[in-house]
Amino acid sequence: MSVTIADVEHLLDSLKLAYRVEHHAPITSIQEAMESGLLSDLGMTTGSMVKNLLLTDTTGECYLLVAPGMGRVDLKGMARHLGCTRLSFASLKTFGAVFGTSKGQVTMFDLLDGDERVKRVHLVVDSRVALIPGDTAFHVDSNTVSVLVRAQDVPVIALTIQPTYLTYPEV
């Protein structure tokens, strides 16, 4: 099953959350969004972007981290906080095996997919995401469609997508 914009709209409507859908040129990174002018077209700034990072530990567990778009993520600290082994960025092979897609095209909305491989991915939301002022954006279905939601609503969305989602307080 592939998650569609209709699936995401249904979720957000059921939660009674404000959102908007934007169609745009293909974007695979925050850097591309900045250079292309997409951020300003969407009424966003670099500070309002989030990144979605697929991580794996040495046992093969997968974690999808939603974190503020600018700055680094402390993978060692995150591994300690989550009680897992060393974390690293997932390989293209893992992206394909779990989501059937490539880097730059996976967001927390992809966890709505009912596939058993996807259900094993642990959703982790950096606690700073909810502090981002205004809207933030997530790709849906492809890297040419984004849904913008209030950043403060991301924990509510995460809880609905995966009731056992984890938070990561950046140290």
Helix content: 25-40%
**Order of strands across the main sheet:** 4-2-3-5-8
The total of helices stands at 7
Q: What integer is the average pLDDT?
A: 89
Taking the alpha carbons of the first and last residues, their distance comes to: 37 Å
Rg result: 15 Å
Structural class, please?
Answer: alpha/beta
Stretches where pLDDT is under 50 for at least 5 consecutive residues are: none
Query: What string gives the helices and strands in order?
Result: HEHHEEHEHHEEEHE
Largest sheet: 5 strands, mixed
Number of strands: 8
Principal-axes geometry comes out as: globular
Structural write-up:
The chain has 171 residues and is an alpha/beta fold. It is built from seven helices and eight strands; from the N terminus they run H-E-H-H-E-E-H-E-H-H-E-E-E-H-E. The strands form two sheets. It has a five-stranded mixed β-sheet with strand order 4-2-3-5-8. A three-stranded antiparallel β-sheet has the order 1-7-6, covered by helices on one side. A hairpin with a 4-residue loop joins strand 2 and strand 3 (62-68). The protein is globular, with a radius of gyration of 15 Å.
